[in-house]
Amino acid sequence: MLAGRSKFLIGGLLVLAAVIYLIVSSMSANAEYFLTVEELQAQQQELAGKNLRISGAVVGDTIQYDAESLTLTFEVAHVPGNNAEIEAQGGLSSVLHEAVMDPTRARLQVAYIGPKPDLLQNEAQAIMTGHLGEDGVFYADELLLKCPTKYEEAVPEQVNGN
Fold first, then answer.
1. Can you name the residues that pair with 108 across neighbouring β-strands?
2. Is the pLDDT of residue 59 over 70?
């Protein structure tokens, strides 16, 4: 009777170990690192080919779209990833504006295949999921845009810098 219980206990532990292994391995395989443009450029070698999520300010005069091939390319400028730092610099609208206007800020070329989003414009915040190619271009699979000018009336102290 004791031998039957030990076999049952060992079998249960093996099944539990297998389930834990499957959970951990699937989580690490699908993990996405959320980075700023500067962080991505600093770690290019280690992060090439990995699933990444990055954020930056759209530089309007770099937007190019081919409606036939649905190919969209543009640059994003570095914006801080820390919300407290963004608030200290006058809010999101101010930070996005400064990022686009400062030619010394780190910039990243982005390529996306799909319809051109309506909110894609100068100084929009782009949050992209994809991977960094060996050519240094970020190939976005998903593209989310936030346009702070849409919310200017809701947060006038950010827009006016007060």
1. 76
2. yes
**From 2.40.50.140, 1.10.3720.10, 3.40.50.300, 2.40.50.100, which CATH number describes the 33-159 domain?**
2.40.50.140
Residue 15 pLDDT level (bands cut at 50, 70, 90): confident
Per-domain residue ranges of the chain: 1-31, 33-159
Least confident of 74-88, 98-112, 139-153: 139-153
